[in-house]
Amino acid sequence: MDRTKTIALILLAVLTAMATGASTAQTLAALPTPSPAALTLNEARPLPAWSAFCQRYAAECAVDADAPARIALTPAVWSTIATVNRRVNKSLNAVTDGDHWGVPDRWDLAEDGSGDCEDYQLLKRRMLVERGLPRRALRMTVVIDEIGEGHAVLMVRTDRGDLILDNKTNAVLSGPRTGYTFIKREGQDGLAWVTLNGGASPVATANR
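^ thats the sequence. predicted structure below, dont judge the formating
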């Protein structure tokens, strides 16, 4: 191979490496900036509807203490989280538990294609676990929403802070950006829940 072709091949390799590096940097820059995790205060009681759900779906509530408590938020993981959040939000028919089941609050996996806030989040969690994310880092969480009502979201605990999956928006946000008051979430070391930043707990999560 002559000198001119050799130099051309070297230049091509350098330019390709630079382009790949720039692309990776842009992808990483698009990830959320680190944010402080919600403060865990002490043990809390789960909602009665959660306890009933766990009797029907024990595996969905089990805590594996050997699993990671936080997820490394790589571009691939971020893409998976955002895709599942959008897909479930689009696929389910929003309906209150009163209209759906004839009861004020029932947590389920929306296996019939309909559900309210907690059902969306439980289905998202199942799908994320199926895609390899540890359930221990995916915590069901109770909040008071922007209209002062009980609401359920899915907290994804990552090395860049806690991210919130919500059926009210396709955007994956950090906790503070939701504007919600965080009340409690599943614990990561057992079946008991834990309080988050205080506040009175709602008796139900009745939002669609």
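The longest strand covers residues 150-158.
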